Amino acid sequence: MNEVISVEARFEPDGTIYPLTFLWQERRYRVTSLSRQWEHDGEHRFLVMTAEEQIFVLAYFPEKRIWRLNRRPEDFRGPRKVV
Prior knowledge:
Blueprint: E1 3-11, E2 17-24, E3 27-40, E4 43-50, E5 55-61, E6 66-71
Antiparallel strand pairs: 1-2, 1-6, 2-3, 3-4, 4-5, 5-6
């Protein structure tokens, strides 16, 4: 999953980035918790939880100034067993 999304974020003078809200599939999600952030292949990734207690990974590409949805809640579920 690497869908381009719209994100409202706060950029601090020290370079810290805080995603606040994002728009995905015509729905706005409010970020209530930023669990961790890291860099991978030139992008900044953020593990966030929304007000609906859903977990997402957002990715910011500073060179292009674009955000992408890297992982959605379904991606965190383990394999399902068929009985």
